[in-house]
Amino acid sequence: MKLYQVEAVILRSKIMREADKMLTVFSRERGKQRLVAYGAGKSSSRKRGIVQPLCHSQLLLNKGKVLDSVNQCELITVFSQLRYDLDKLMLSFYLCELMEAITVEDEPNEPLFILLLTTLRWLDQVSIDLPAAEKLVTGFEIKMLGLTGYLPELGCCVECGGEINGRLKFSFRCGGVLCANCFDIDAKAMLIKPQSLNLMRQMITSNPGGLPKLQMASGNFNEAKIILRLFTSYHLEQRAKSLDFMQVLNTMEKPGVY
Ligand SMILES: [Zn+2]
C-alpha cells in the first residue's frame, strides 16, 4: 500500500455507489485530483464531515490503480460562517466550480491553492457583508486568470500595442483591451470605461484582504465584474472545445479506429 499526504480544499463531493463518495479536491501538493472516499456516505463515518465541499482538510491518500482513495482525514478549517449565509455559500461554491473548470488534474499550483484558501478565509469573516464578498470573488477571478495563464492584457491595446486612452473596448476573443483604432478587429468587443479598467488593474495587485477596502463606484465595479465573468466563461468554453478536439485527435491516432 503506497500512502501519501496532501493538504486540500474539497471542491465537490458526490455519492458514487452505495456509501462511497467521489471527490474533486484541489491540493497544495498535486493540484486538482479526483479521489474516492470509501464509506464516507454512511452516517456513522468519521470521514463524512471532513470530505464535504468547502472543507480544508489534511488527507492521507492511498495510491490506487485508477483513482487514489482517502485512507485517513483530518479537518483543518471548516469555514463555519459561510454555511450560515446563503449568499456567501453560493459565492464560495462558485469559486469551487471555477477552480474545477479552469485547472487540469495533477498540475500543482501552490499560489492558486493559497489564493483559494485565503479568499475562503476572508469570506468566512463575519465582518464581510455581501458587497465586500462580491469584491473578494471578483478579485479572486482576475487573480485566478493570472495564475493559470489567462490574464487579459490591460496595460496597452492587445492588438496594436498602442497606448490606451479615449474610448476603449474589451475583446474576449483577443484577450484584452482594444484602442479605438482597433475596434474593427472584433465586432463583439464591449465598451469599457477607463475607470473600470483601472479597477481591474488594482484588483490584480491588491491582496485578497485589501479587496473589500478598495474604493470604487458601484457602476465601475459592476462593469468590471460582468466583463471578467464573461471573459472567464469565454475561456472555459474555448478550452472545453480544444479538449474535445484533442480527444478526437487521440482517437484518430489509434490505428484502425476512425
Ligand atoms: Zn490598437
Q: What gyration radius follows from the Cα positions, in whole Å?
A: 21 Å
Q: What ranges have pLDDT less than 50 throughout 5 or more consecutive residues?
A: 254-258
Output the helix-strand order: EEEEEHHHEEEHH
Distance between the termini: 40 Å
Tell me the structural class: alpha+beta
Structural shape: globular
Describe what you observe in this structure.
This protein is an alpha+beta fold and 258 residues long. The protein folds into 2 domains: 3-77, Beta Barrel (OB fold (Dihydrolipoamide Acetyltransferase, E2P)); 151-258, no CATH class. The protein contains 5 helices and 8 strands; from the N terminus they run E-E-E-E-E-H-H-H-E-E-E-H-H. The protein has helices at 86-102, 110-123, 130-147, 194-205, 218-253; strands at 3-15, 21-27, 31-37, 56-62, 68-77, 168-171, 176-179, 190-192. The strands form 2 sheets. It has a 5-stranded mixed barrel. It is globular and about 65 Å long. It starts with a strand and ends in a 5-residue tail after the last helix. The model is unreliable at 254-258 (pLDDT under 50). Bound molecules: zinc ion. The site of zinc ion has 8 residues, from strand 7.
List keywords for this structure.
258 residues; OB fold (Dihydrolipoamide Acetyltransferase, E2P); 2 domains; five-stranded mixed barrel; 21% strand; globular; disordered C terminus; binds zinc ion
Short description:
With 258 residues, this protein is of the alpha+beta class.
